[in-house]
Amino acid sequence: MTVELSRAQLAELARLLASTAPEEVDCEVFHRHLAALVERHGAAVDTPELLRSLRQHIEVCPECREEFEALLRAMERRD
Amino acid sequence: MVQEEPRSDEQWLSELREAPARAETVVALRSYVVGGLRRALAGRPGVSDADLEDFAQASVIRILDRLESFEGRSRFTTWALAIAIRVAMTELRRRRWGDRSLADLEVDRPSPRSTRAESDPGDALVRADEIARLERAIETHLTPRQRTAILAELAGMPTAVLAEQLGITPNALYKLHHDARRKLRAALEQDQARSAPPPSNAARTKR
Ligand SMILES: [Zn+2]
What we know:
The complex is a heterodimer. Chain A is mostly helical. Chain A has one domain (7-76). Chain A is 68% helix and 0% strand. Chain A has four helices and no strands. Chain A has helices at residues 7-19, 27-39, 48-60, 62-76. In chain A, α2 (27-39) runs parallel beside α4 and α3 (48-60) packs across α4. The model of chain A has no long low-confidence stretch (mean pLDDT 88). Chain B is an all-alpha fold. Chain B has helices spanning 9-17, 22-40, 49-65, 76-97, 102-105, 128-141, 144-154, 159-166, 170-195, 200-205. At the A-B interface, α1, α2 and α4 of A face α2, α4, α6, α7 and α9 of B. The site of zinc ion has 6 residues of chain A, from α2 and α4. Zinc ion binds next to α2 and α4 of chain A.
């Protein structure tokens, strides 16, 4: 079997691997804290370790990153 | 239009829990969600007003369903909007992806050059030897399912669709993907350590 990825895909994979951590929170945990993360820039997140994990999740999970950015946009443009 | 006093979190919760205020509050929540989604999805092509209404409708049902899991970490409305954004994005991702399956992706003998930008902005970022290493690591260090998880996501397949097709939960898929990334990273690090030039002293006495 040969793996043939485009350069862009390989670049994305290299970036993902560079951001990969031994322990990560999954999307469910991320989502539980998403509103607090956006609203108070993480001030309401329980511990610094958790805050670090949530920020790391954004680096390795494109879908959660997309939702984080969308919520941020919605909150910033209010009023 | 009458400018209403904004509800407190407690008001939202108690009014959504029971009559008589429930019906009216559900309408207010729906309208908040439509406005929030409009801002969140601004500039996205192919999102109509009817879509926003549909997403809001589905979101309100989900929000009411999960009311008791609101923990007060943020304002109620921010929490509700986060749920709505997930509902809307999941649907938009499915639409964009269409009904392609894993078989269409041919991730077993992959050459998915299709879905990412043709201009290849990655050119400058990845060197030829790194490419070879990465491709070798994907071929030799991953289980078939791990390889599928990595390649399907790189091809842009939504995780909800991929989890369904693999018959696993999204959380299990995340773990599969995470395990695959850890393995690849470890393999690349080992590879690099092996091919690194020996320190200069050792170089002379070697062989
Ligand atoms: Zn995620």
